[in-house]
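Supplementary Note 3. Input sequence used for the single-chain structure prediction.
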Amino acid sequence: MQKPVIERAVLSIAGSDSCGGSGIQADMNTFAAFGVYGASVITAVTARNTLEVRAVEPVSDRLILDQVESVMEDLPISAIKIGALPSVAGISVLGELLSSLNPRIPVVVDPVVIEPRGKELGGEVILEALQNHLFPLATLITPNREEAEILTGKKILCMADMESAARELLAYGSDGVFLKGGSFGSREMIDLLLTGEGTTTYTHRSFEGLFHGTGCALSSAVAAGLARGRALDEAVREAVDYVQQCLGHSRAPMKGRAGLLGFHPNN
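The predicted structure, written as discrete structure tokens, is reproduced below.
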């Protein structure tokens, strides 16, 4: 009997997390939860746990591109999620490769420029490369509040600041901006989706404590939704609901941040 073929796959281009809570590992867990096949391109290997990032070893630009080309030549990639990238040259060449795809496929860019406790992974030059080479190709970019402040150079202190920052980021050419993490003294969290069609806000419960990998789960969940044929706003809504369910099912860590475990939306 002939085995069924893979109908849709999602490619994550991101770093590896040795404690499994973020990066490629979190993306693969999310893809599985949404019932899509996950493929991976590893851009950096980290030595980390729930407390800290101890070391980062970037993968060469050539090997990153070889991984992308190998996957794209074989698997039915229906969406791409992009996380941490280690070099300007690699970002530029990756942008050229993605822009040459015909037909174009949805791309979700999670601009990973900050780690817990304020440790930057990249810097202004990396950010400029993301803005110039990947944001214009993106279906959605998903910065959190701190990342948006770095990307725009402006503090976000209220909802008006959030909307202004989202509009500034949308001008780089993506179809949409999903800006995460506005609380402004409230017990609720507010996320904001801005597209050319308007603005949608998502208000939800704020969980106590520190968590690990929420941004990775959110961006990969959106990519999974787009791969399954969801409209952007529907994919975002499902991703927000998924992360909220994950937070509700999170497990206490040994020492540091809690991990997002134990929830599968299809169960």
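Confidence is low (pLDDT under 50) at residues 116-120, 261-267. DSSP finds eight helices and 13 strands in the chain.
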